Input
Amino acid sequence: MKVCPNCNHSNMDSASFCTTCGMDLTNTPIQPEPIQTVPSAPQVMPPVTVYQPKEQEPYSWPDVCAIIGFISSLVGLFWCSVVLLPVGVIFSLLGFMGHRTRGLAIAGLTISLIGTLIKVCVVMTQSNLLPDWVVKGIFNA
Ligand SMILES: [Zn+2]
Output
């Protein structure tokens, strides 16, 4: 292109006269096209979302404990085993330290605590530790 020395208008390479001011451009050197200086927006790289397969961590002890605690609390609940429920509590507490099986640990802990509560109630009822009105109700006493 030819830049008019008079008015700085950019003219075609073939232009003999400036299209704006009519200046003679025959002796004006052809200039290379200015590189499109579109303010190159700072290359905002999209957050690299390369899917990295989550490295399968080996099962740690807390995970195993959570599983053991969950199972033993379940078994303890349904069989009302006094031995298994504390085991379920302890292992669930241990399993709580593992970040992967925390939900399982909470479940095991809840189940074993409920089971313990039921068991305590049953034992107290059977051994007449609870007053009559609690066992039979106030009006049936
Ligand atoms: Zn001009």
User: Anything to note?
Assistant: The helical segments are 61-79, 84-95, 102-126, 132-136. Residues 4, 6-7, 9, 18, 20-21, 23 surround zinc ion (CB under 6 Å).
